[in-house]
Each structure stands twice: as C-alpha cells, then as structure tokens.
Amino acid sequence: MKSQVALVKIHPQAIGSTVLEAVRESVDLIGGIENFCHKDNEVLIKPNISTLDSFQCTNPLVTRAVAKIFSEYHCTVLIGEDPSIPIKENIAYREYGLYELAKKANAKVVSLRYGPHTRVEVPGGGYFSEIEVSSIAQEADLVVSVATMKSANITTVTLGLKNLKGLVRPSWKRKFHCEGLNQGIVDLNAAIRPGLTVIDATLGKDLSASPRVSYPVGLIIASGDPVAADSVCARVMGFNPEKIEHIRLAKEKGLGVLGLENIEIRGEKIENWTGRFPFSPPKDPFKLAEKSGGRIRIIQGNPCSVCLNELGQSLASQEDHLHAFRDVTILVGPEAKPCLSSGYTILFGKCLKKHKDKGIYVAGCPPHEYEPLKIDSLKKVLAKILEKRG
Ligand code: SF4
What we know:
Elements lengths: L2 E7 L6 H14 L12 E6 L12 H13 L3 E4 L9 H8 L1 H7 L3 E2 L7 E5 L8 E5 H5 L2 E11 L3 E3 L1 H4 L6 H10 L1 H11 L4 E11 L6 E3 L3 E5 L2 H11 L8 H8 L10 E5 L17 H7 L4 E5 L4 H12 L11 E5 L11 E5 L11 E3 L15 H12 L1
Parallel strand pairs: 1-12, 2-3, 2-7, 3-4, 7-9, 13-14, 14-15, 15-16
Antiparallel strand pairs: 1-11, 5-6, 7-8, 9-10, 9-11
Helix pairs in contact: 1-2, 2-4, 7-8, 8-10, 11-12
Bound molecules: iron/sulfur cluster (SF4).
The site of iron/sulfur cluster (SF4) has 13 residues, from helix 12.
C-alpha cells in the first residue's frame, strides 16, 4: 500500500480558524484523527521551538491547531520541546507563547529538557544501539512531529525527522553532532516512531541563504509516514530527497518511503508546487573546509547545531578563495581545545571565551554574521586574514 501525504493550500499569513481548518483538512485527507489515536490516548505534540528566533520555529498557530484537534477528540495533549542547548527552555516557551497557546488548546506544557530521560534501544541497531530519550515521549501513545519547512547547512533540510532531536537528552544531542548527525536522526526515529508528522509550510524559511529569507509557500503537509512527509516537503523546496542523507537513510532503515511512485498525494497536486521557491543548497562547514585542501581545519568539541549552521554560512562567504588561506584552525563547541599552531586560531562562539588569549575570538552564542554591532564576525575575520595574505 502506498503512503499517503496530504498537501493543503493555506494563505501564508492565515490566522485562527483558517489555520485550524487547514490542519484538520490535512489530517482528514490521510484518514482522519481516528487513524492515528484512540479517544483518551496521551498525545505528545513536538513543535520546533529550537531557538528564540521566531523565524526558525513552527508557526504557533499550526502547533495550536494540531493540539486542538487532538484535545477535541478527547485525548490528553502534552506539548514540549528542548530548545538548542544555550537557550533556556522556559524563556523559549514564553517567547513562543506556548503557555497561552496550550491553554487555548486545552493542552499541558511539559519539559522535555528537565523531565526524565531513559535509554531506549534502537530496533535493529544503528550507529547508536541505544539513545537517551525523554520518558514522556516513550510513554505517550502517539508522538506528533510538528515541524516547520526550513533549509539547513548541515542536513540540507530540517523537517519532521530532524525535529525529533528535541526528544533526546541534551548531552546526547551533542553526541549526535560529533558522532554522526544523519544516522543519529534515523536511529532516533526508529526508536521513537512519530505516528504523525505535520509540517507547517505557511512560510518556508531558507536558512542556507545569505542573508536568510522566507518564502510565502502556503501549505500544510501531513502524513503518518515521516519519510514520505519529509521527502514530499523536500521536493516542494526543490531538493531531491534521495540526495538528503538522513531522509535516504531513514528509507533504507524501513521507516517509510520516499519515491513518488510509492506515495499517494492527496489534496494539492505536487507538480504545481515543486521547486516554486529558490531554496539555497546547504553550506556544510566541513565540506567547505575540505575544499580548502587542508588550509582550513575545523576542530569541533560538542558544538550546537546552530553554531555549525553559522559557521557554514561564514565559510561560504569565502568559497571562491578557500585555497588562498594557509594554516587556519577554527575551534567550535565548548569542548574544543586549542592546539599549538603557527597560523591563525579562531575561537568561534561564546563557549570558547575561556581560551580567548589563544587566538582570535568571535563572540556570540551562536555568532551571527548579520549582527550589525558585532565588529568581528567570522566573515570579517576571514576577509581580514585574506587581506593580510594578499
Ligand atoms: S557558542 Fe555555539 S557551540 Fe557554544 S554554546 Fe553557544 S551555540 Fe553552542
């Protein structure tokens, strides 16, 4: 049987009941709510509230709509997230308006950071044989990944599969980044299978663009198959899902399908939406460093994903000149240790302030290339190094 994916058109700036009706329609198109849970079930809604920057988060109206349709169905609805490590969970919740939103949807806010975590086995093994995951997610009858459409420098896209990363114990999130993000995402989704994925594509956020930009896409995407949901969304963004490592690996692990021949799309026709918006290709900092032929080295020590994203953006600013650098070492992440070097050592991010006297310190958590007051963004530091060499 084919996996079903709903594509429902919505005004990119729709509000209130319009959003609720679009989300309801998307779930109805794939069999209705009773296809995913029973009355009285406990449902965990996992939106993307990874940063304080509303640009990067799931549209709160979509989160509220998903919560509301489950609470109206007499489920116990929990909503939670664990934002990026430097951000305090309660501040992220407050900025997002989560407490008010949950009240209106008759849902309860839970802490995925401070709530209990227990080890869960990865079925069939993977890169990780077990992962420490929120017990709330493990105990819920249904986990709903409520992602937003956005591009990313390391994984090309951040959609439903990657959104589950907020369920992992914070110390494990960093393991993912150091030891294998793509395979980690797949192992996590194998361990905690999201029963439903809803992707807020009201606005599509292109974080790989410089400067970043949002497109008025105007879609709600929903599926019980997380791989199918992400692969359809990736196609709308103009990417080939076969070339996105974590989506391809998820398919290979048997978590869902990605070929259109195995997907039944309900609602809008995908051909009317594919590639309509010019999302940018990823700027992977490690690939860019590799391209420098060893002239730029990155030493990572458990960095946050937001930092790697920014690092990619800054290195991409010198993409045509990577061979002109010599002996540049960039440290990123709180556990990165400076080593003796005759060249330039760059300490990227506030958590490396402690080594400030050992190199060129780039402030920020994460350092943003756009912050007008930040005189020494990495982009500027790299430009200055090149200038000196010239
Ligand atoms: S500077 Fe970067 S790696 Fe360090 S804590 Fe902040 S976001 Fe994380």
